[in-house]
């Protein structure tokens, strides 16, 4: 029997609140799963917030609150939890509905009264004591080696006895959260994985949590994922545990580096740690971990022409044919491009040299195949050949038959962004590269060609949400590349001034198509991009007010207001953008 669609308006669109949370405007309202989600093989993730029952996210949040109250009860015998308990009257009517592919939040572990954890140890569940591993000098979680040093004998701040046999693996001796908690954190992280740059098979990752420790991903990666699950939950109570998972990830790093078969996990975890620090404005720590991830990727030849073995090491001198047919091999390709995106984009923001080399006509060129969606690797649709340098061929303007997946478009945007900044750095008022103008024209042509391959920004409602957010980022980075390419000499060249101004307006046009819900899934790097756009708009406004004081400049002020709105919204999630918000506010307040 066909699914029955929900009520629609006379124009054929769904009434407000009738679309599923995943599809928004393209949803047909069919239940239990709409056609859009069904075609995308995401039927299990289709859910409706129609006011008749709680969504999975709401249930997860209430579970966290209940766990927090239980912790307080155990820590303080005199504490009395609130007597009012919210009951979902529609829970039983939904008990037979399909669950998430990453596990249903409606399962019994979400009920405090049916918790599978020993009541005497629930305080350790979210707030474990740190007496087993503590820094020698500073209690804050930091990047240098000193933060990984073991220290014994510090009394536990928790009144509940710490029982290492329950949560420690005898071989690896590190904290492992209970299975139910680990699954819940992974469910929270899953919709944001691409936002963090991590392309990984989340279904297999979740299944691996039930496997023996030796068959699981290294805790350095898992704790980095749990850290991001807490981070993206701000300001919910779960965010209070960021420090714990950050500390656990940092403490796991030395052991992970000593395990040659966990190299990919180290690279992925270091990228997540770096991006966490950068998003929070902790630039030195973020730069430290980004450089470490990029250096390790170069050391093992992850982006070279040579194939890589099961540990992630280059097999250039080994008689071994590459096998890129399974998900693990696909994840290694995706891991390289994850660190590439981080290295190229944030090196521009941090004003530091890129770590991953890519020199034309040398052994240091990147030959790693363009990234594909993880489902393509799962289905065996893998591009196994890359006869020409991947990035160099793209930047030269050549059009290849591959490299048009969403992850590949995101990589190309990073390459353009970094190349524009690098080329602009070759120019000064006294000296410039002999081929500077030719290189500039080639790069401009490549940017224009790249933008023509993207879905127009006003048509992004027709794509899946996870693809929409990556395309927003690709549009923004490409236009930002034009700004970086011309802003250095814009005040001396009218054409460059105009091109950088038009690129800033294009970025603002992208912002106009960003919905409130989109802000929760945007990448942190979009903040510095908007900061650069704001600088250009302020430059234009200052120039016009000096040259034409009597002319109405309300349009530029309006653009600055749009930027202020977007940057203020983003700053609640990523503090790195906060200084720019203050600058724009002061400029708008001036007459």
TrEMBL record:
It comes from the Eukaryota. Pfam families: Fungal_trans. Its main location: nucleus. Keywords: Metal-binding, Nucleus, Transcription, Transcription regulation. It is found in: Nucleus. Residues 94-110 have a biased composition (Low complexity). GO terms for molecular function: DNA binding; DNA-binding transcription factor activity, RNA polymerase II-specific; zinc ion binding. GO terms for biological process: DNA-templated transcription. GO terms for cellular component: nucleus. Residues 14-57 form the Zn(2)-C6 fungal-type domain. Residues 90-110 are annotated as: Disordered. This is Zn(2)-C6 fungal-type domain-containing protein. It comes from Gymnopilus dilepis.
